[in-house]
Amino acid sequence: MAAKTDDSGPVLPPAIEYAWGLRDRPPKGPRPGMSVPAIVDAAVGVADADGLAAVSMSRVAKELGAATMALYRYVGSKDELLALMVDAGYGPSPGPPPPGTDWRAGLTRWAWAEHDVLRQRFWLLHVPITGPPITPQQLGWMEDGLRCLDGTALTEGEKMSTLLLLTGYVRNEATLASQIAEGSRATGAKPSEMMPAYGRLLAQLIDPARFPALQRVLAAGVLSQDDDPDDEFTFGLDRILDGVDALIGRRAAT
Amino acid sequence: MAAKTDDSGPVLPPAIEYAWGLRDRPPKGPRPGMSVPAIVDAAVGVADADGLAAVSMSRVAKELGAATMALYRYVGSKDELLALMVDAGYGPSPGPPPPGTDWRAGLTRWAWAEHDVLRQRFWLLHVPITGPPITPQQLGWMEDGLRCLDGTALTEGEKMSTLLLLTGYVRNEATLASQIAEGSRATGAKPSEMMPAYGRLLAQLIDPARFPALQRVLAAGVLSQDDDPDDEFTFGLDRILDGVDALIGRRAAT
DNA sequence: CCCTTCTGCGTATGGCATACGCTGTTATGC
DNA sequence: GCATAACAGCGTATGCCATACGCAGAAGGG
Question: Residues A84, A135: contact at Cβ < 8 Å?
Answer without folding.
Answer: yes
